[in-house]
Design a protein that fits this description.
Family: Belongs to the HMG-CoA reductase family.
Number of strands: 11
Protein name: 3-hydroxy-3-methylglutaryl coenzyme A reductase
Low-confidence stretches: 1-42, 105-166
Number of domains: 4
CATH superfamily of the largest domain: 3-hydroxy-3-methylglutaryl-coenzyme A Reductase, Chain A, domain 2
CATH class of the largest domain: Alpha Beta
Main location: endoplasmic reticulum
CATH architecture of the largest domain: Alpha-Beta Complex
Shape: globular
Helix content: 40-55%
Pfam families: HMG-CoA_red (PF00368)
EC number: 1.1.1.34
Number of helices: 22
Distance between the termini: 15 Å
Structural class: alpha+beta
Mean pLDDT: 83
Length: 589
């Protein structure tokens, strides 16, 4: 099935390009029948050999200079006194470094220079986003300049419904040649961005190539309306479009005296409505209180020694409080926000697992803590030269896996959230009784989960709410595994008239800077909660508030779902809100 569409009429195209002369010239360039000569054509050797030579030169010279400088430091020789061979090595290092700035060689540097002028706004906006400390209202409202391939489409300003089936323009002759080269394997798909210098065009070419290779249509996957420059090198590789997930609002959630409208990205009917009902019950009872009682991201490398006794020597060295300050100083050099909190070791034969825990500011912090761990390992290598670093992560962290160490000791943010719900609200809003809720929670969430051998799963559906908020706010969805560890408690109070509800979540792993948080949609959801970017006055305040909001939303979701089960309304509600009334057979035909 040919999913391409005819280009717009010439009159419409010319009228569009008359208003954008820069785009017209760019489009004319793309229609040029003969490609421009590349600088790499003038090389005496193939490009991959040239790259290999410069790689070898760079690392060899760097290794030589580091050894020479180490010898000078040991011999108290001034570093500025250099021999002829050292001077030649420094010049070689500078020359090879300039070449390797492009990494992929002259092709990449040439494409970067070619697009530098018309990409100036994109670069400026990206630098602005990376600061994260600018207030939302003070940020300049700039849109990245659309690529020439997108100029034929009117869907950018069209209604939202038009994105369900985005028009795909007929490829130009240059793009057609690129598609054929990708299909044949002459051009690697991953290199399109560096070759073209246009992220949208690269995604468009890659998308068409995928359709031809697989023989399957991607007509329902949107391509237009997304800033592909914003994900280059940080969020997603080899994009061909983006997936649409609806975002609903639950709330207001009254938490610690403040109201929050909670964005939830989900395709599960009833989830937002149920969480919203829980928020209503909490609000009517005076709100919820959330306390963050621990904050520390972990990374646990594994090292190996020739003998177990030798491994135990490092064990005692790391556990000795007298050495902590030195290790903390080495660790904290990785970032101005990184602060080493504790080190925990575990021996397994001659393998030693070292669990580092540190504060990471408003970032989720995996990269930050990994850099700090690398610094410590390099420092320890001098004291323990027979230490073999098997891996920067030995699964004692434990990241993206259910683990007792996280459930017991915590990872990320540890939060407890509670609310006192009056009996009147339980009956009128939640449509059940206090005694029924308490009994169901004991039998289902506590006893039932114990029988199942659950690890951190003593709840009704914490993962539902955590996943929805994570996707909406740009968190790592895979970390929902440990972030959803939760125990829900319900107790009758005031002679059985009211109910005390709480959720304890020891490892909520969230951040408000880095990763997907800087994308436009996710950034907007963070801004809605008032936690966008880093907090200037109090580092880590925004990420901690986000963790509290996650726990408060989970409390609302637990309260509502448990009430629905206790009242026998679960199936009825899902049949009403989680089933489409449309005849799908007529739609697909």
């Amino acid at each position: 099935m040919d999913v391409r569409r005819r280009p717009p009429k010439p009159s419409h195209r010319n009228h569009h390009l008359q208003h954008h002369p820069q785009r017209a010239s760019s489009a004319a360039l793309r229609r040029s029948p003969s490609p421009a000569p590349k600088a790499s054509d003038a090389l005496p050797l193939p490009l991959y050999l040239t790259n290999g030579i410069f790689f070898t030169l760079f690392f060899s010279v760097a290794y030589y200079l580091l050894h020479r400088w180490r010898d000078k430091i040991r011999n108290s020789t001034p570093l500025h006194v250099v021999t002829l061979s050292e001077l030649a090595a420094i010049l070689s290092l500078i020359a090879s470094f300039i070449y390797l700035l492009g990494f992929f060689g002259i092709d990449f540097v040439q494409s970067f220079i070619a697009r530098a002028s018309h990409d100036a706004w994109d670069i400026e906006d990206e630098e602005e986003n990376n600061r994260f400390l600018l207030d939302e209202d003070r940020r300049p409202r700039r849109r990245p300049a659309p690529c020439p391939a997108a100029l034929d489409n009117s869907s950018i300003s069209a209604p939202v419904s038009s994105f369900m089936d985005p028009p795909v323009p007929l490829p130009s002759q240059d793009d057609e040649d690129l598609v054929k080269s990708v299909v044949s394997g002459d051009i690697p798909s991953y290199s399109l961005e560096s070759r073209l210098g246009d992220c949208y065009r690269a995604a468009s070419v890659r998308r068409e190539a995928v359709q031809r290779i697989t023989g399957r249509s991607l007509a329902g996957l949107p391509l237009d309306g997304f800033d592909y420059q914003s994900i280059l090198g940080q969020c997603c590789e080899m994009p061909i479009g983006y997936v649409q997930i609806p975002v609903g609002i639950a709330g207001p959630l009254l938490l610690n005296g403040c109201e929050y409208s909670v964005p939830m990205a989900t395709t599960e009917g009833c989830l937002v409505a149920s969480t919203n009902r829980g928020c209503k019950a909490i609000y009517a009872s005076g709100g919820a209180t959330s306390i963050l009682f621990r904050d520390g991201m972990t990374r646990a490398p594994v090292v190996k020694f020739p003998t177990a006794s030798r491994a135990s020597e490092l064990f005692f060295f790391l556990e000795d409080p007298a050495n902590f300050d030195t290790l903390a100083m080495v660790f904290n050099k990785s970032s101005r926000f990184a602060r080493l909190q504790k080190i925990q070791c575990s021996l397994a034969g001659r393998n030693l697992y070292i669990r580092f825990s540190c504060g990471t500011g408003d970032a989720m912090g995996m990269n930050m803590v990994s850099k700090g761990v690398q610094n410590v390992l390099e420092f320890l290598q001098d004291e323990f030269p027979d230490m073999d670093v098997v891996g920067i992560s030995g699964n004692f962290c434990s990241d993206k896996k259910p683990a007792a160490v996280n459930w017991i000791q915590g990872r990320g943010k540890s939060v407890v959230c509670e609310a006192m719900i009056s009996g009147e609200v339980v009956e009128k809003v939640l449509k059940t009784s206090v005694s029924a809720l308490v009994e169901l929670n004991t039998i289902k969430n506590l006893t039932g989960s114990a029988i199942a051998g659950s690890l951190g799963g003593f709840n009704a559906h914490a993962a539902n709410i955590v996943s929805a908020i994570f996707i909406a706010t740009g968190q790592d969805p895979a970390q929902n595994i440990e972030s959803s560890h939760c125990i829900t408690m319900m107790e009758a109070v005031n002679d059985g008239k009211d109910i005390h509800v709480s959720v304890t979540m020891p490892c909520i792993e969230v951040g408000t800077v880095g990763g997907g948080t800087q994308l436009a949609s996710q950034s907007a959801c963070l801004n809605l909660l008032g936690v966008k970017g880093a907090c200037r006055e109090s580092p880590a305040a925004n990420s901690r508030l986000l963790a509290n909001i996650v726990a408060g939303s989970v409390l609302a979701g637990e309260l509502s779902l448990m009430s629905a089960i206790a009242a026998g309304q679960l199936v009825k509600s899902h049949m009403k809100y989680n089933r489409s009334s449309r005849d799908m057979s007529t739609i697909t035909s």
